[in-house]
Structures are given as C-alpha cells and as structure tokens.
Amino acid sequence: MNYNFRKAELSEIAPIWAILQQAIQRRKEDGSNQWQDGYPNPEVVQKDIEKGEGFVLVTGETIIGYSALLINDEPAYGNIEGKWLTNADFVVMHRVAISENYLGKGLAKLMIKNIEDFALSNTIFSVKADTNFDNLPMIKIFESQGYTYCGEVYFRGSPRKAYEKVLTK
User: What angle in degrees, to the nearest 10, is found between the helix axes of 42-50 and 13-29?
Assistant: First the structure.
C-alpha cells in the first residue's frame, strides 16, 4: 500500500476523532488510565488542525492514523524529573493513534518515521514524546525505534514516561 503523511484539514475532524475514540477504548480495555479523563476530545483535534499541528497518515483517501506535532512547544517538558538528551530545538509528538482496521501492520512505526522526517525537514534533530507508564504497546514502539527513556514529566497531575531520540542527517 502507498501511505502519505500530511497536515490534517478541518473537514477531517470526524474520521480523526473516530480513530482517537478507538484508541481511547483500546487504552481502557488494556487497563490503562491514559486518555480516560475526557482528553483528547474533538476540540483538541480542532485546535491541533487550526494551529497547523495536526497530521494524518493516509492510504488513498482513507485516514488511518493521527498525530499532533509541536515544535519547541511543550511546557511540561521543561520540568522533567530526569534529563533530556539535548537542549536544542525539538519536535514533540502527541496523540499518536492508528485506526483499528490497520493495527498490527507496523503503521505506528511508519508514522514515527514520518515524524522524524518532518523534524529533519525543519532542520530539527530531536524528537521528544511521552506516554503513560501502563501504555506498554507505545513503550515497546519507542524502544524499538531507538528512543531513550529520559525521566518523568507530568500532564494533568499524572506522571508520564518521557522519551527522546536524537536524529542524524
């Protein structure tokens, strides 16, 4: 299949939200607390897209994944309990989700590769991310893709595992 990673459009909020709802349910079924507090929600997705930070992974016209990408914009990362690998510019990935219909095909890893390419295209050599302590699938993906555990950050009062990958040209 051919995959394309591009900025999301406001007209795509409904299919993006459907994918995020599937991921919220998956987290719940896995016994995770992540995303069980009304976040993310359609308003968050709309803000992502309006700010040019919402991205989709598509095959043909079908949206199969979503992520928000922020450049140097994650206040919580300034208060890490631990130490980042770098202190230069960075891309943050949030809200990474793949459609139920496309799970198990390595597409989260493909999306992360596209996120890394996005960083490099902006001459940024660091990608940072975080996930819940109990989100084992995401932790495994980060570790398999060369991300280094750097410590803990806090979102809405909850500790999260923080990761960074330093990219090379």
Answer: 130
Which amino acid is residue 124, in one-letter code? Answer: I
Nearest-angstrom CA–CA distance, 91 and 163? 12
For tokens 């928000």, the residue is 68
CA–centroid distance for 65 within its chain: 10
Q: What is the CATH number of the domain that holds 152?
A: 3.40.630.30
Q: Give the span between the Cα atoms of 101 and 58, in whole angstroms.
A: 13
Eight-state DSSP code of residue 87? -
Question: What residue numbers bound the domain in which 78 lies?
Answer: 4-166
* Radius of gyration in angstroms for the set of CA atoms belonging to the chain, rounded to a whole number: 15
Give pLDDT tens digits for 17-42: 999 999 999 999 988 888 888 889 99
Q: How many domains does the chain fold into?
A: 1
